[in-house]
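Checked the freezer inventory, then went back to the computational side. Two predictions to log before the end of the day. The first one is the construct we discussed on Monday; recording sequence and tokens without edits.
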Amino acid sequence: MKLVLFELPGRGDVWPGVLTDQGVVNVADVVRVGHSPQLTMQGIIDDFDRLRPELERRVRTSETLPLSSVRLRAPLPRPGKILACIANYWEHGALEARPLNMFLKSSDAVIGPGDTIVLPEFTEPWIFMHEAELALVIKGPAKMVKREDWRRAVFGYTGMIDVSARGEGRRTWKTGSCSGSRSTRSPPSARASPPPMRSPTPTMCTCSSGWMGSSVT
């Protein structure tokens, strides 16, 4: 199931929905709509086990809005934490496994599908690189989770595009990469694989840092 947040043309309200092959199904009357889009999606995540049967029924029986008639927004506009990892790949072909090198990114950097990435006005010739990444939606609180218990902590996943500013190689990153976050995270949908744990603020754990896709799956 792909969970989304979307807008209708000419309206500023953001609604929860389910993305299907035919388009988007509005589920605002099924879920609890929060004071912000982030709180709406958090409520769906926290209560997903109870909501899932009705969401699946609604997808089968309700009218579908064509994807061309809506604007998809970031499914988690302001996650409680964005934890990024740069240990899963290296441009220079390192073959040996490396310890996880993780860092935080600002949730204020999240934008949605079709939004514009605003680059800083560096006076030095820095390179801005985009990286497609997988983002895991962690439903906490989760700490010291064992490998075999990962399903208890992972609610689902989405896509991200990370935009990094650097010079010649990773060692030349600007100091304080968190404050320079240009994550355009906006998954078209979020695919749900719901765990039993509750969390007031879902965490995004990414392969690096990035632009959010259009859904949580």
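The second is the one RB wanted added to the comparison set:
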Amino acid sequence: MIITTKGIVLKIIKYGDTSIICNIFTELLGLQTYLVKGVRSEKKQSRKGNILRPGNILDLQVYHQNDKNLQYIKEYRLDYFFETIGENVIKNTLLLFAVEVLSSLVQTADAQEDLFEFATGFLHKIDKASSDSLTNMPVFFLKEAAKKMGYAIDDNYSATNCYLNTYEGCFQSRPGESLPVFDRELSHQCYLLIRETAFENIAAIKVPALDRTAILEGYLHFVQWHDKSFKPLKSLPVLQAILH
């Protein structure tokens, strides 16, 4: 059957002399793998393959068979043209970070429409945002995306429960005994970030660079502890360097 859906390109693998295999997180079909023929040839029409890049949001018409692991695309075009991400190092690295997070979180063909809507909206917003407003966005994207897949740190911070435990995913009355250990101040900074759910408000929260790094690594530890398929992120060192 032919299905019309939107999708975020996650990964491209060269196949043969002229084709590619493309992993796409689709709105209606979850994670799908497509064989796209001829897009690496010298022919003029192969230039369309340039839009099949990680992070691009596409309008798709696809041939879909439930019993097949490899599907085919009938038609595709850009759903949204990024105006600034391609030429902005901070935004482009943040886009690649988001793609890596999605690649680890989305592992099946089950539709994840809430996550898809959040992810596309996030990419639209960072494209239009100023670069100096993006320092907290890695933590924001990770926590919101993970929450939509069922992984969320409990919002139970209080004067008594003021130490974050990334193993249990909650705040407790004393520091944890295993790394990473969050002291009272770092736990409070983390709480300020994780309680905020609006893109427009997260940038106003002032967190020192070293604390941002520790919070992001701590949240990654929480997600990886609870989702063993979540892979280390190659974009993380670059992202931390440019946002420091």
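For RB: The longest strand covers residues 2-15. Residues 209-226 form the longest helix (18 residues). Let me know if you want it refolded.
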